[in-house]
Amino acid sequence: MFKLYEYSPSGNCYKVRLLLTQLNIAFDRTEINILEGKSRTPEFLVKNPNGRIPVLEIAPGKFLFESNAIMFFLSEETEFFPTDKLERAQVMQWLFFEQYSHEPFIATSRFWYLIGKAEEYQEALKQKQAPGYAALGVMEQHLAENEFFAGDRYTIADIGLFAYTHVAGEGGFDLTRFPAIQTWIDRVKNQPRYISITQ
Question: For the whole model, what pTM was predicted?
Fold first, then answer.
């Protein structure tokens, strides 16, 4: 059985948890409290030398890290990853966008709020607003004309972007400005075997 090492409030961990659940794959969960440095212990660094979560143990002693790489591994040859060459590239395009243009601003802001550091990082939070809203604007433009991000169906591109977008309000971003994103969020929540980030 797969074992997921995670910090459950993390959107990156939620991506993997959601996909495993929607694939109907049984897995065990092990909570790693990153606030207490548990991802930096010698024991954990054997699993991921980069000291980050999530990590998926796919076989005894065999570990895979980086949330989008884990999703790629799990989704190949399933309905969550297209067979068409261009559509596969589009999935990867949006996953790279999520990691480089979206997550550093929206996810980081949420994390600072969740750990009670919003006041301390007030200036940094302000600096993340413009690029965060820019990323949401790119998504809004795409979703105004498309139901999903790749191949006109729900894929890991949607899971990757949904994880932090649907809780962007927890990081100080106003999603009421993005009606197409809001409609897409509801569409994702209506997918079979959907679970919330708190499950």
Answer: 0.96
* Per-residue pLDDT, 151: 87
Residue 182: Cβ within 10 Å count = 16
CA distance 29 to 5: 6
What is d(CA 181, CA 175) in angstroms, rounded to the nearest whole number?
8
Question: Considering all CA atoms of the chain, what is the largest pairwise distance in Å, rounded to the nearest integer?
Answer: 48
CA distance 77 to 63: 20
Each residue of 15-31: pLDDT tens digit? 999 999 999 999 999 99
Whether the CB-CB separation of 16 and 67 falls below 8 Å is answered with yes
**DSSP per-residue string spanning 8-21:** TT-HHHHHHHHHHH
Q: What is the DSSP letter of 29?
A: E
CA distance 34 to 40: 8
> pLDDT > 70: what percent of the chain?
100
Q: Fill in the DSSP letter of residue 53.
A: S
C-beta of residue 22 within 8 angstroms of C-beta of residue 194: yes
The C-alpha atoms of residue 110 and residue 104 are separated, in whole angstroms, by 10
CA 48 – CA 108 distance, rounded (Å): 21
Whole-angstrom Cα distance, residue 55 to residue 4? Answer: 6
